[in-house]
């Protein structure tokens, strides 16, 4: 029996639709095709989520979380659309070149294609599962017709939009093929993620992660293809250009992440190769084999990060210097300030981690509350530096992400001698959202704070947007959890734990922080163009989403808040 979407609405779905409507209401007429595509994507994702939630268990997802399909499907396209709104203002003011707007348009359609591909895959899986369970049951004809109509209309709008930024029909076809590759890659990656790491993520969380990875590394691949074509094919035969001018820090971070991606694949291959040829020899002791694994790990990591990744940066992205001396040159360009910040961070991290680790082992404090202290630690570490040394913080976030990734590889592969120690230490700070296979909490907190800062580089006429992650996670989410846990009585739902008192405290604390931050930014030279009404809408909407969603809030709340602050 078909279920009406209106009857199946819950708090999370309502807040997500309010978020989408708020962004759509701020669009200029020039972005009308993008508005139609986002509307169709939202409606399609709503139908798919309702269908999947009422189907048999299709995937081994994280227990206690809803599917989160609509939130996962619309978040990244809406972020890109908010950036398009901002860049449209910049073009009208002649602050940027039109090529930057066209590049972001491709990023929007790529993000939409990733989500659309996953939605089509989920709808087909749900359809097949329903028919397999009951051969005489057919999925709602209305669902099928509506979903097919959304896909057809979305494809038509996409073709029209791409035709307006393409010079020839061949370029349009090439871009459509590139978007199709994004959708196919995301579907394959989300299948791999959900099967390799069962019970680690909801469908919405997996969709956000896989779409982000495909979008980010697809951008690297497109830059590489463009550069290779320009080097090998005479310019009179073909002229291929892709991308925009990137900052030096952005290039370094992109190169490091690409190096780690290549390293993980190479290391896995080398380990399998080593075990195939020498692993069968049982005469060696276990300790000796672990030492050999460690040597392979260190050698391959060093070679790729020192030789392969820098070579890609210098050839493809025209980076003039090897990144290692460039980093030292950057730090010592203001040695006193930046070395002092490094010392400040090290002291703060050492004192806090040591203290909280002992508490976690010996105290009965709930793990979720203990982890909120790390959110407050993020405020102390990042907020002052973002105001006075934003470029250095950009680089520091990239370095921290690289360290976290290497440590997680060491933990998962149990690389001697740190593997077991890292696993024991990280396990002290896990909760129900983590598993032994992969621990995501520290990644989500770091990226939740870092992504708004990285995405705000370049032209930015909304000075609060870089602070979206720090404000929403470090202040809003922390105050909501602590006040709700201690004083909360009125719950948003009968089954949920979130309270009205906690949500009110979170929203109020973020508004108070904004009222302090805006005059402080004005005193440091920022030209303020933000008004209180859109700030209030942004804070309230993200606060309500935190109250209703069962998804990983560290991943979604900063991106939603960031998108709304751009309006």
Automatic annotation (TrEMBL):
Coiled coil: none annotated. One of its GO terms (biological process) is dolichyl monophosphate biosynthetic process. Its EC number is 2.7.1.108. Its main location: endoplasmic reticulum. One of its GO terms (molecular function) is dolichol kinase activity. It is found in: Endoplasmic reticulum membrane. InterPro entries: Polypren_kinase. The chain crosses the membrane at residues 106-130, 151-170, 253-274, 295-316, 336-357, 369-389, 395-416, 437-455, 467-484, 505-528. It is a multi-pass membrane protein. Keywords: Endoplasmic reticulum, Kinase, Membrane, Transferase, Transmembrane, Transmembrane helix. GO terms for cellular component: endoplasmic reticulum membrane. PANTHER family: DOLICHOL KINASE, TRANSMEMBRANE PROTEIN 15-RELATED. Belongs to the polyprenol kinase family. This is dolichol kinase. The gene is LOC107963907.
């Amino acid at each position: 029996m078909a279920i009406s979407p209106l009857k199946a609405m819950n708090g999370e779905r309502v807040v997500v639709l309010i978020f989408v409507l708020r962004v759509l209401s701020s669009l200029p007429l020039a972005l009308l095709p993008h508005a139609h595509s986002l509307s169709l994507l939202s409606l399609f994702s709503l139908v798919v989520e309702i269908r999947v939630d009422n189907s048999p268990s299709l995937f081994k997802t994280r227990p206690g979380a809803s599917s989160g399909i609509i939130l996962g499907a619309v978040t990244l396209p809406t972020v890109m659309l908010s950036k398009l709104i901002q860049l449209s203002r910049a073009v009208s003011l002649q602050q940027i070149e039109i090529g930057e707007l066209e590049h972001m348009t491709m990023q929007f359609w790529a993000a939409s294609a990733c989500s659309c591909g996953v939605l089509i895959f989920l709808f087909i899986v749900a359809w097949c599962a329903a028919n397999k369970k009951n051969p005489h049951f057919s999925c709602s004809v209305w669902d099928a017709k509506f979903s097919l109509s959304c896909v057809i209309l979305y494809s038509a709008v996409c073709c029209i939009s791409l035709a307006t930024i393409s010079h020839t029909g061949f370029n349009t076809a090439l871009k459509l093929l590139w978007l199709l590759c994004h959708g196919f890659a995301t579907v394959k990656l989300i299948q791999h993620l959900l099967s390799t790491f069962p019970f680690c993520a909801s469908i919405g969380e997996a969709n956000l992660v896989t779409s982000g990875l495909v979008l980010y590394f697809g951008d690297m691949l497109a830059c590489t293809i463009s550069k290779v074509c320009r080097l090998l094919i005479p310019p009179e035969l073909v002229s291929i250009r892709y991308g925009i001018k990137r900052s030096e820090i952005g290039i370094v971070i992109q190169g490091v992440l690409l190096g780690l991606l290549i390293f993980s694949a190479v290391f896995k291959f080398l380990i399998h190769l080593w075990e195939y040829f020498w692993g069968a020899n049982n005469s060696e002791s276990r300790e000796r084999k672990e030492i050999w694994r460690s040597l392979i790990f260190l050698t391959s990591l060093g070679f790729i990060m020192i030789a392969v990744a820098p070579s890609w940066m210098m050839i493809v992205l025209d980076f003039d210097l090897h990144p290692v001396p460039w980093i030292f040159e950057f730090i010592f360009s203001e040695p006193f300030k930046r070395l002092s910040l490094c010392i400040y961070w090290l002291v703060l991290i050492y004192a806090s981690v040591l203290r909280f680790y002992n508490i976690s082992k010996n105290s009965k404090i709930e793990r979720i509350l203990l982890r909120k202290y790390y959110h407050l630690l993020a405020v102390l570490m990042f907020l002052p530096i973002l105001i006075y040394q934003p470029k250095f913080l950009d680089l520091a976030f990239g370095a921290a992400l690289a360290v976290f990734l290497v440590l997680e590889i060491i933990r998962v592969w149990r690389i001697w001698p740190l593997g077991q120690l890292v696993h024991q230490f990280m396990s002290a700070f896990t909760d129900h959202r983590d598993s032994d296979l992969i621990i995501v909490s520290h990644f989500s907190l770091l990226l939740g704070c870092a992504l708004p800062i990285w995405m705000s580089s370049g032209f930015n006429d909304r000075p609060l947007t870089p602070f979206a992650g720090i404000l929403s996670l470090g202040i809003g989410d922390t105050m909501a959890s602590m006040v709700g846990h201690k004083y909360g009585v009125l719950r948003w739902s009968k089954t949920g734990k979130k309270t009205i008192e906690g949500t009110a405290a979170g929203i109020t604390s973020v508004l108070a922080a904004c009222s302090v931050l805006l005059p402080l930014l004005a005193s440091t030279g920022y030209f303020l163009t933000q008004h209180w009404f859109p700030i209030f809408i942004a804070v309230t909407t993200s606060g309500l989403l935190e109250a209703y969603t069962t998804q990983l809030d560290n991943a979604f709340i900063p991106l939603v808040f960031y998108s709304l602050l751009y309006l």
